[in-house]
Amino acid sequence: MVASKVVYEGWMVRCGRRKIGRSYIHMRYFVLESRLLAYYKRKPQHNVVPIKTLLIDGNCRVEDRGLKTHHGYMVYVLSIYNKKEKYHRITMAAFNIQEALLWKEKIESVIDQHQDLQVANGNKYISFEYKSGMDNGRAASSSDHESHFLVKKIKISKIWLYAL
C-alpha cells in the first residue's frame, strides 16, 4: 500500500468531555494527509497506529467553534466531521488563533481538492428521473418514462449554483 502524502502536521490540543461530564485537554500530534486526518500521542515513528482517524472527502466540513475555556486555558476549537456521519468527528484546538486558522485552511484545501475531483470524474451533473407511472390521473407515455432532467452544478467561490 502506498503511503499518502502528508499535507500538514504538528502539535495541537485535543479537548472534549468524558461520559461522566468531566472535560479533558491533551496535547496530541495531528497529521493531515491527502485523504486522512489522524492524531497520535507522540510524533509517529514508522508504523504507529493512530488514536483516531477521519477519512477526508468532499462531504467533510470544518466547523469553527471559536474561543473556549478548558481547564483554565483559552483555546480556539475546530471540529471536523463528515456530513454523512456527523457523530464521527475530530475536535482539535490551538492556543493561538493563527495556528487554528492555518489548520482550518489546510483541511479545507484538502476537502476542496476532493470536491474538485468529484466534479472532474463526471459528477458535475445530477440527474432526476421521472419514476411515476401516472401523471395527473393519466397513464404516462413511454417518452415520459425515459425523460429526465439534468441540472448543471456550478461552483462560484465556494457557492454551488444549480442551473437547468
UniProtKB/TrEMBL annotation:
Listed PROSITE patterns: PH_DOMAIN
Pfam families per the UniProt record, alphabetical: PH
Top-rank lineage group of the source organism: Eukaryota
InterPro entries: EDR2-like (IPR045096), PH-like_dom_sf (IPR011993), PH_domain (IPR001849)
Gene3D superfamilies in the record: Pleckstrin-homology domain (PH domain)/Phosphotyrosine-binding domain (PTB)
Residue ranges of domain PH in the record: 5-112
CDD domains to which the protein is assigned, alphabetical: PH
Annotated protein name in UniProt: PH domain-containing protein
